[in-house]
Write a structure and sequence with these properties.
mainly alpha, 4 helices
Length: about 130
């Protein structure tokens, strides 16, 4: 029995929504002047990152790497801009740790999917379907 590599679009939509929700939540907790992120808020953001990373690992193993790359481009770009602002303006350490963690998770998954695409294209370039 042949298994399909295409998962329902709901899985990819959920990854996109979770990543954007975590960004909005981080922006909300770090928007005070002066920035005062509590440890509980930090733990909620890190827990969301952990759930998101587990779900992305599942999609990387079971899903289509082309779709995974397309879904990860926007959140990865948003978090890169957030990390550069955190480092430039020396914001709260918890906010910077959240940004570094999210960027490392998204970049690792993005590179893993890119490597999968490269290996698939090298093994059989004419048979690969999106």
């Amino acid at each position: 029995m042949k298994t399909s590599r295409n998962l329902p679009i709901v899985h990819y939509f959920l990854i996109f929504i979770l990543s954007c929700w975590n960004f909005v939540y981080t922006m909300a907790i770090s928007s005070d002047i002066p920035v005062n992120v509590s440890f509980e808020e930090f733990l909620i953001a890190e827990l969301t990152i952990a759930i998101l990373s587990l779900f992305m690992i599942y999609l990387t193993i079971k899903g289509n790497p082309w779709i995974n790359i397309l879904v990860l481009i926007i959140p990865n770009s948003i978090w890169i801009f957030n990390l550069t602002n955190d480092l430039k303006y020396n914001t709260h350490p918890y906010d910077t740790i959240i940004s570094i963690t999210m960027i490392s998770v998204l970049s690792t998954i993005f590179l893993w999917n890119t490597l999968k695409v490269i290996l698939i294209l090298r093994s059989n370039p004419l048979k690969f379907k999106i």
